[in-house]
Structures are given as C-alpha cells and as structure tokens.
Specification:
alpha/beta, Rossmann fold, single chain
Length: 261
Amino acid sequence: MSGPPLFAEKHGQESVTDPAGHAAWVRDADPDAGLASAAGVVMLYQRRLLDHARCRYRHRERPGWARGGLFLLDHGAHTVAVCGGFGLGAPAAALVMEQLIALGARRFVTVGTAAGMQPELGPGSLVLCESALRDEGTSHHYLPPRRTAAAALDLTDRLGRLLPSAVRGMVWTTDAPYRETRSEVAAYKKALVLAADMEAAALFTVAEHRQVEAAAIVAVADSLVRPRPREDRPETQKALQRALAAAVQALTAGLRHSVGP
C-alpha cells in the first residue's frame, strides 16, 4: 500500500472545493476584504508571539478574513498581514495559506518553533529553512512524490541578510512529533538536517502549487539529539521576536511605493 495520496492520478485534476469560495464568503460580509495590496503575510503559531506583534506594531484587526486571527500592521509606508491562532501542523497551516492566497496574498513568511537536530543548536538558535523533508501528508496532495520541498530563494536570502546569525539549511517536517524515532533522528542528524518542524514542507508545496512565494524561519525550542523536558526559555521568545521583525522587514524591503489597503 502506497502513501498519500491513495488516488495517484489526482495531481493533474481540479479540486471539487476551491478556496475562492472562502474569499467570496468573506467579501459577502466585508466587500473590502483583500490582501493583493499587502506586502505579504507573516504566519505565526505561538500565542505569546502573536500578542507581541499586536503590541509592537500599530495594526488593524480584520476578523473573519481567515481561520484564526488576522490583522494588518503598518511598517513605514507599507502594510503586512499577520495571521495566527489557527492551530499547529501542516493541515491547519496549509488551509489558512490557501484562504489567504484566495484573498490575494502572494508572499509568505512562516515563523515558528522547532526541535534542534544538531548538538550546537540550543534554545534560541534560529534556523532559516532552505528546504524541508516532506514527511507529512499534506504536501503529497499538492505535488507528486519528491523527497524535499524548497523555499522561495529571494525571500529566504532577504531573511538571511537580516538574520546573519541564523543557520541555513534543511528541516524535517513531520505530522507526528510523538513518533520521531531514534533511528530517524540519527539518520537525519548525519544528513545534516538542522531541525524538526510541523509546517514548512506543506507551505512550500502549497506555494509552489499556487505559484506564490514562501519562506520559513524557526527558533529552536528543544532538542531531539539531547532530549529533556521542554522549558519555556526566554532565549526562544527573544529569537521569535527577532524573526518576526526580520519577516516584516524582508516582506517590505525594496518596495517602491505604499502597498497598504
């Protein structure tokens, strides 16, 4: 029995459901709903970081535009959408990304936490994801079998210039954080995989399928090579805040005019 998708011929076929239906439903309630003029979207997973973004930036809430919470923040002359509170994992993140693309978004940076897979990556280390192992289910419904998914190069390079201490490389995206085995960890550590997350591969494949840009930056919160009880470390929170600031700046860098709605 093969892995997902079970219906192998699906990749060239149209979906029965269309995220454009979500956009039409949102615009029934708010005719001005749209993200085409925004510089991009930052997707967040940690509630504390979402609260920090609301405090750090002047913003305008846009309830009902997407699953979870979405607001528009001002960065100089530009506008960036921030979306969070929609849950963890590839299916939740991909669903929200589809909704945001249907509203006109074309550039995404996802900012979350991950488990380190190299001993030198302690809490608070930043990993800039150049590619991700597709060990979750969602990505396989968007693109045919392939071991990895790639981030948008230009957007990743912008983040790299803003976060010179971040380590660049591959992450392992898995849906099953309580089934990360010692054999897998050892093999991926040897292959120089940097960290394990739950969303990057899916978001990169949705972006490729929909022809938009996506990049990912994660802060190491714990370790798979030196496991111990997870702690709420201040280093991780500070790293997430740095990553958020870099994501906003990377999305607006180089824009010649205001893109606010």
